[in-house]
């Protein structure tokens, strides 16, 4: 990395904090992950992630002189007009932190804040499962469900508080409650915790079927998490099949609508649940296709994320590089 431009990347606002440093090819070369303390609020998380990034840069010769920009990936909505985090459902206190001022003061370079799923979409488009496609829709099925749309190598960004909120499309109006206040959102049925919640919801509707299932026997020993449901489904349990098919049917409704609206060439599925089983994507492919308008059915493929754990920081590095280049271009015109 000697001599070339550097970009610093962050992932925050979720269960983990990650920082990475990229060179002029925009690929993350080194990264560090910091576990969040269980009671940590945003100000503590900021301190931890800044300290980790300073340690990371301390091993790189002339790092501060070569640093050009910072990409800040946030696990919640961002307010683009003020370039700041807006709301995180998993960690409080982001309204008490001035992310851009704090990072600019420490590192002396421009900072660009963006939602984590949009950055994941950007990373997959450039270096992952979206290479070669002109348009890509990324969906994460993890603790929550989020989406991002990339066209021609750039995030399609037009809403002040974002766009592509596939997680909060209502697909079952009388379904389980969602953290956003609605009922039956994709996130309430198809995230990791959502799948577990759906299992409880369906167990109450079909108690005999539940009681006779292997899944219910295994649930006496360990809590019903999405991993257990997917494992039981793969092992052939009839109740797990009901839960997984119900969840993927609802997700297929939202994804087919996404295809009809945006016609992405590629749909990339990420997140812990989304990448837990190849069979899950086979099932999703099978269910989405008949719901898409016939003349778009051959226009897209659904594939698994390739970048996995590093996807958000990788996207943050690409964004930092793109925005820094645009700023230079704008300056040269003035
Ligand atoms: Zn919701």
- Count the E strands: 12
Number of DSSP helices? 12
Class based on secondary structure composition and strand pairing: alpha/beta
SSE order: EEEHHEEEHEHEEEHHHHHHEHEH
Q: Strand order, biggest sheet?
A: 3-2-1-4-7
- C-alpha geometry: globular
CATH homolog superfamily of the largest domain: ATPase, nucleotide binding domain
Q: Could you name the CATH topology of the largest domain?
A: Nucleotidyltransferase, domain 5
Q: How does the major sheet shape up?
A: 5 strands, mixed
Low-confidence runs of at least 5 consecutive residues: none
The portion of residues forming beta strands comes to 15-25%
The pLDDT mean sits at 94
Each distinct ligand: zinc ion
CATH hierarchy: architecture of the largest domain: 2-Layer Sandwich
Helix content: 40-55%
The CATH C-level class name of the largest domain: Alpha Beta
Distance between the termini: 31 Å
Domains (count): 2
Which oligomeric form is depicted?
Answer: single chain
Mind telling me the C-alpha Rg?
Answer: 21 Å
